[in-house]
């Protein structure tokens, strides 16, 4: 089973590598295939990092543009998705710096509206309200974390990526990735406790 | 609560402990209300984070990507030409900076040139009518005294003044040099201090006069340095030789 998974992963990686080589040679369709294959993954991560759909789409676009411009820098030994997510992480960090100017009110409104649009259980409005309240509190706490904590929480606890993958994306060792996750969780707990503490 | 226990609780809540480790930890903390509260909070956190994994559909298309790449991505990458000599800038800049620094330091620490003044035994200023010293109109008549110089006439250039034809003829507006006395001699300036209603030219005016006029001196040349003597506090002076054949200010 493990062998199959690794073989399948290897084949996928080979395919990515082959597509990258074609794209390097000027085959734009090969790059479009890469985009089709990985845009969902990139978008999910970008959305979690930015909490806004339009921002996430901008990040995805910018990430693929940068990937295309820097295809010659991609080394075949790393997975293409890992390389891509690394680009996204950097872009999101840059964007977070720039968007610090945005008012907190605007962010809250956007997050609230998005939650209302995307999630909700009309059949049980009371539970829905409580779930929404917790979700908003958690999102608020997550957004308040420093970028290096936020990214590891998203990668590990929301996107459920494995530690070696995370290590490759973050540019650290497996042990380093584990340590970062522990610290980030502790930081998030410190922030979420006062927000969820009212109903305890 | 200790950090190590808390980390284990977090791992337990997020399902990162083996079943044996999890069972052992649960037994350990079952009587610890603080640890149980933390465990509960971590479990809530995990559930909440999982619920955040839902994301709205993106509205992205290949066309949009193609447009973006066409407008941005196909720009030529900034490549350095192979024959670029840009590395030369660094040493060249360093050299230039070093040169400027040296030049500046040189200017700052440059020793002032020693001044040439007449020694005590300077014979005469040797002025003639052909080389008059210009004295401002408001400069009152007085006596310009040289250390050992014979009486010397300095012609003024006031409007109504006639330049004397004869050197022995003394005009009221003519400055005359007289023999100094030893007691009143100022070794620093080489001139006599004021005496009675006579006017002693300052060192500056004397030097400027010496510069503007071609003077033949017959005494010794004394170089006065800017450095002060430690014992006396006066400027150091060095006699360098006779000035009989030296044309000062020429």
Supply the number of structural domains of chain A. 2
Query: How many E-type strands of chain B?
Result: 7
**CATH fold group of the largest domain in chain A:** Rna Polymerase Sigma Factor, Chain: A
Oligomerization status of the protein chains: heterodimer
Give the neighbour order of strands across the main sheet of chain B.
1-5-6
Inertia-based shape of chain B: elongated
Shape of chain A: globular
In DSSP terms (H or I, runs of 4 or more residues), the helix count of chain A works out at 9
Low-confidence stretches of chain B: 122-133, 139-202, 212-217
Helix/sheet category of chain B: alpha+beta
Query: Would you list the SSEs of chain A in sequence order as H and E?
Result: HHHHHHHHH
Give a short account of the largest sheet of chain A.
none
**Helix residue percentage of chain B:** 25-40%
Strand tally of chain A, please?
Answer: 0
Q: Strand-and-helix sequence of chain B, N→C?
A: HHHHHEEEHEEEE
Percent strand of chain A equals: under 5%
Tell me which protein chains meet in the greatest interface and how many residues each side has: A-B, 44 and 35 residues
Question: What does this entry look like structurally?
Answer:
The complex is a heterodimer of chains A (200) and B (250). Chain A is mostly helical and 200 residues long. Chain A is 80% helix and 0% strand. In chain A, α7 packs across α9 (174-196). The N and C termini of chain A lie far apart (44 Å). Chain B has 250 residues and is an alpha+beta fold. Helices cover 34% and strands 12% of the residues of chain B. Chain B has helices spanning 3-13, 19-29, 33-51, 62-73, 89-109, 203-212; strands at 115-118, 153-154, 175-176, 215-216, 220-228, 235-242, 247-248. In chain B, the strands form three sheets. In chain B, strands 1-5-6 form a three-stranded antiparallel beta sheet, with no helix packed on it. In chain B, α1 crosses α3 (33-51). The longest helix of chain B is centred in the middle third of the chain and has 21 residues, at 89-109. At the A-B interface, α2, α3, α5, α6 and α7 of A face α1, α3 and α4 of B.
């Amino acid at each position: 089973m493990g062998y199959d998974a690794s073989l399948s992963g290897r084949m996928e990686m080979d395919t990515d590598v082959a597509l990258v080589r074609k794209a390097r040679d000027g085959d734009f369709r090969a790059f479009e295939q890469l985009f089709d294959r990985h845009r969902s993954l990139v978008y999910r991560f970008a959305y979690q990092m930015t909490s806004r759909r339009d921002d996430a789409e901008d990040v995805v676009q910018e990430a693929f543009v940068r990937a295309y411009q820097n295809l010659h820098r991609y080394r075949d030994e790393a997975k293409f998705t890992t390389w891509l997510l690394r680009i996204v992480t950097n872009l999101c960090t840059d964007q977070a710096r720039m968007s610090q100017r945005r008012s907190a009110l605007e962010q809250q409104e956007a997050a609230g509206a998005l939650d209302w649009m995307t999630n909700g259980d009309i059949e049980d409005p009371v539970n829905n309200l409580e779930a929404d309240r917790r979700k908003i509190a958690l999102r608020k706490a997550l957004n308040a974390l420093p970028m290096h904590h936020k990214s590891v929480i998203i990668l590990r606890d929301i996107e459920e990526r494995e530690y070696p993958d995370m290590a490759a994306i973050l540019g650290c060792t497996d042990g380093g990735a584990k340590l970062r996750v522990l610290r980030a969780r502790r930081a998030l707990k410190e922030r979420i406790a006062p927000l969820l503490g009212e109903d305890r | 609560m200790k950090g190590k226990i808390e980390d284990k609780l977090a791992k337990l809540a997020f399902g990162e402990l083996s079943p044996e480790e999890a069972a052992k930890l649960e037994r350990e903390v079952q009587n610890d209300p603080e640890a149980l509260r933390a465990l509960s909070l971590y479990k809530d956190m995990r559930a909440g984070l999982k619920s955040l994994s839902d994301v709205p559909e993106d509205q992205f298309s290949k066309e949009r990507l193609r447009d973006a790449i066409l407008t941005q991505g196909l720009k030529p990458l900034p490549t350095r030409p192979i024959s670029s000599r840009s590395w030369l800038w660094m040493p060249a800049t360093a050299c230039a900076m070093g040169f400027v620094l040296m030049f500046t330091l040189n200017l700052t620490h440059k020793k002032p040139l020693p001044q040439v003044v007449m020694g005590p035994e300077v014979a005469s200023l040797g002025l003639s009518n052909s080389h008059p010293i210009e004295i401002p109109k408001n400069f009152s008549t007085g006596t310009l005294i040289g250390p050992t110089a014979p009486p010397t006439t300095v012609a003024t250039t006031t409007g109504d003044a006639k330049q004397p034809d004869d050197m022995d003829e003394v005009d009221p507006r003519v400055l005359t040099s007289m023999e100094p006395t030893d007691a009143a001699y100022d070794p620093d300036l080489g001139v006599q201090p004021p005496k009675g209603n006579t006017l002693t030219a300052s060192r500056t005016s004397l030097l400027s006069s010496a510069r503007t006029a071609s003077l033949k001196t017959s005494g010794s040349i004394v170089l006065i340095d800017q450095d002060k003597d430690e014992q006396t506090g006066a400027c150091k002076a060095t006699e360098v030789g006779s000035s009989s054949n030296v044309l000062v200010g020429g």
